[in-house]
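Table S2 (continued). Query chain:
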Amino acid sequence: MSTFFKHNAFDVLKYPEFRSYIIARFFFIFVLNMQATLISWTVYDITKDPFSIGLIGLVEFVPAFAMAFYAGYVIDKNDKRKLLMYSFAGNLLLTIAFAFITSSFSVQYFSKQAVLLVIYVIVFFTGIARSFSGPTSFALVSQLVPKEELPAAITWHSGSWQVAAVSGPALGGILYASIGLTNTFYWMIFLLLIAVTGSFFILPKPAAPSIREETILQNIKQGFRFVWHTKEVLGALSLDLFAVFFGGAVALLPYFSDVILKSGPQGLGLLRSAPSLGAVAVLLWITVSPLKRKQGRTMLYCVAGFGICIILFGLSKLFWLSFFALFMSGTLDGISIIVRSTILQLKTPDEMRGRVASLNSIFIMSSNELGAFESGFTAKLLGVVPAVVFGGCMTIGIAIATWFKAPNLRKLEYCVLCVFAVKPLLLQINGIFT
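Corresponding output:
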């Protein structure tokens, strides 16, 4: 542990490649969060239907899921810096498309249904780009700094993600209200140009030479087999998958902001920022006071607490109480994800990081994007508030069931000294919700 605390967290910024990476990734995540906020509001504004918001998640999930296994293979076999540049550039083109379809020209010459359809098509391609961007970032960061500096790099990696996730939605809502939707997308284009430019200052990072030749299918199977047979990893991922899948209240925020809380797009931006703000708080706390024991039990407690927060949010009619419930949900979810990510990194060989990161992204996307669709679907059947309360109850039930059905996960403990001092390379925790 002393190795970790002897290094100043700012020392890692002396490496030019890492500085360029953090700046580029910050603006990239910043724009993605602005984009998610405004697209969900635009779709709801066109349809006034909570189900249409949930459909965004399904449309993004399907291509991301379909491409994830192949993306992991490509990442492990190719230059990760080049793939990062391509993913940034692809999202830049998609943001330009969003700016066009939401412009006054499109609104004037296309029907609302046509605009809605094009938005869903662009979201579909966003899912393809996302299947590469998150895992590539996951696999790249450990190649930018020496091993002894990696703990500090992880702090900046996760911290910058969270700051972008907090400020992006909030600024998106403010800009929407002050300069309009299309002009806000123009700002996103400018910020993504900064991200693309920053990626040019990273040197090529070719793949490690492979000891054995494998077909694509064999390579993908190897990654899947690893996760399936590593029970701690599979259990932690499954718990997060089903808990967040049913607790996906964030997808319905446009409805709550407009109908129940009457806070408009500015309020929507703040509400979307609340979970990430909670995650930032817990990240700072974990940095100072890491979880030293009973991590598995703590993770289960946090998942159950997450469900309680979702129920509180669903029942609240006060903006400040709703914000607090989402803030606390982000805090508790942040702890569980840190535990899950640490388990994942401790068990993953370096040569499989791309494939395992892609599998991890499937679980994350299944819980977030597919969970958004589940929220929209149950809202259609039960009503919005009952759907959110139902999801929170299901999350609590999953935590209780896991407590009794997976005692190994409940009793899981990992050595903090080992994590921070002996194997710092394995500490590369991916940004939360990446």
